[in-house]
Every structure is written in C-alpha cells, then in structure tokens.
Write a structure and sequence with these properties.
- The chain has 201 residues and is mainly alpha-helical.
- 86% of the residues lie in helices and 0% in strands.
- The chain contains seven helices and no strands.
- Helix 6 runs antiparallel to helix 7.
- The longest helix has 53 residues.
Length: 201
C-alpha cells in the first residue's frame, strides 16, 4: 500500500513540475538580441559560417519550445547566444581587415593605372598593333571603372565588394602592362618589315 502511495506521490509531483515548466524566455530573448547584434555587424557577410551556426542553434531552440522541451530549448538558446556573440566579434575583425586590405590595394593600383595610361598614350601607332592598342585602352578604361567602383564601395562601407573590384582592377592593369610591351614589339616588327629597301642596306 505504501509503495502505491509513494508512486502516486511521485507521479503527482512530476505532473506539477511539468505543469509549472515554462519556456526559457530570458535565454531566448538574450539569444535573439545577440543574433540581432551580429546581423547589424553584417556577420552574414563577414562571418557567414559562424552566423549560420548561431541561426541554426536559435531555430533549434524555437523548435524545442514548440515541442515543450524547455530544458533542451534553454541549452540551444544559450548556445545560440554564445555563437552569435562570436559571429559579431569575427565580423568586426574581418571587416577591419578587409577594409584595410582594400584601401592598401587601391593605393597601390592607382599609380600603376596612371603609369599604364601614360605608356599607352605614348605608344607609337602602327599597322601591326593598332587593334591591340585600342583593346588595351578599352581594358584600361574598365580597370579604371573598377577602381572607381572600389573607392565608392569603400566609402559606403561595402568592404568586401571594394576588395573584389580593386583586385579585378589590379589584375587588368597587370595584364595591360605586359601587353603594352608586346604591342610595341609588334609595331617595331612591322616597321622593320616595311622599311624602304634602301634603308635595309
């Protein structure tokens, strides 16, 4: 009889505890606030993997609340908050690094682009390379456009885009510098082939 009473008492207490259990509102709110802060820091762009992990943990916490697994929800919410805070920290660091890298690259490419412009401007025209020089001028205009876009994105805080455009500009300028030399060689070869016969003696 006593064992039956004990069993009933234990079951009653279990039902009372279960009935009193509530969603971990405090932990869920803290996790959401941390995720919002990470998003404001553009963690989706600058710390994408870590931010994705934080979002996954938050979704898991919400799902467990729906299942009334409040202890599991609390654990997932705590994890989401910790990972979101890490995502924000990583985003802040990565943004600074990418910003500085983009600025340094823009500073380096600007004089190189000006030098390439000068080289193209002074390259002699000749039938052997006119088309090449026209194409190189078009490529140089594109490189300059990319560099201007990089400057604009850097000013507006779009550091990742700025870095990509600065890299594209650097690549084009580097190709142009090598191609100018090739074009000049073509011009000299054409001149040599078209010399009057008496100048070849």
């Amino acid at each position: 009889m006593r064992s039956v009473l004990n069993f009933c008492l234990i079951m009653g207490l279990t039902l009372v505890v279960a009935g009193c259990a509530k969603p971990p509102t405090q932990e869920l709110d803290a996790a959401k606030a941390a995720l919002d802060a990470a998003k404001a820091a553009e963690a989706e762009i600058y710390a994408a993997d870590t931010y994705r992990s934080a979002t996954t943990a938050m979704n898991d916490a919400n799902a467990k609340v729906e299942q009334k697994d409040y202890e599991g929800a609390k654990a997932s919410a705590i994890q989401a908050k910790q990972v979101a805070e890490r995502a924000k920290s990583e985003a802040d660091t990565n943004k600074r690094q990418i910003r500085d890298e983009a600025q340094a690259l823009i500073n380096r490419v600007s004089p190189s682009l000006a030098d390439a412009r000068t080289s193209l401007g002074t390259a002699p025209r000749g039938k052997g390379a006119d088309e090449d020089l026209d194409q190189l001028n078009a490529d140089l205009n594109q490189a300059e456009s990319n560099l201007n876009d990089a400057r604009g994105n850097l000013s507006s805080g779009k550091y990742k885009d700025a870095l990509a455009q600065a890299r594209s500009s650097e690549s084009k300028v580097s190709q142009i510098q090598g191609s100018v030399q090739t074009a000049n060689q073509k011009i000299e070869a054409w001149k040599e082939q078209n010399k009057p016969w008496f100048n070849r003696l």
